[in-house]
Fold this protein.
Amino acid sequence: MIDSGLSDFDTTLRDGRTVHVRAIRAADEEEILQAFGRMSADARYMRFMRSVREPNIERLRRVLASFPDAGIGIVATVPAADGIDIVGSAVFFVGSDDPKTCEFAISVNSGFGGAGLASTLMRVLIDSAKKRGLEWMEGFVLAANQPMLRLARRLGFNIERDPDDPTVRICRLPLRSA
C-alpha cells in the first residue's frame, strides 16, 4: 500500500478564514455527501461536466477505498455543528494507460470561491503528484469554467482545446518543471 504522504495543516485564506487541509478518509463519506448536497446545479455541472442530481454512493465508496494506491484525495474542512463541513476537495488518479500521468479534479464550496482555497488545494495536489514521481498532471475543464482555467494558467498548466469536444479544455502540467 502506498502512503499518501500528506500532512495535516491549517491555512488562512485571503479573506481571513481558516481551513484544515488533510488527506481524505473513507470515514468522510457522509461529509462528502453533505458537501455534494450543498453544491448548486451549476457547480455540479462544472465539476462533473454533466448534469448530476444524485451522488453515486457505490462509486464514491470505490473511489475512497482506492486511495492512496490509485491516487490522492485531499479535503479542506471547517468546524460545523455536526463536527466538520468539507468546503473543498481535490483528487488525482494515476492513469491506467499511462502510470506517469495523473488526472485531477477539484471542487470548492461557492462560499469559499475567490479566497485562495482552490489554489491551496491544487498546490498540495501538484506537490503530492511530484513526490509520487509522476511526470504529468492533466484535467478536463469546461471552457465555460473560466475561474478554473485562470487558476490552471496561474499554476503553469498548458491549456488546449479538446479535439473531440469544443466545450472542453485539456489542462496539462509537466510536473518535473512545475
Notes: DSSP finds five helices and eight strands in the chain. Helices lie at 29-38, 41-48, 57-66, 117-131, 146-154. The mean pLDDT is 90. The radius of gyration is 15 Å.
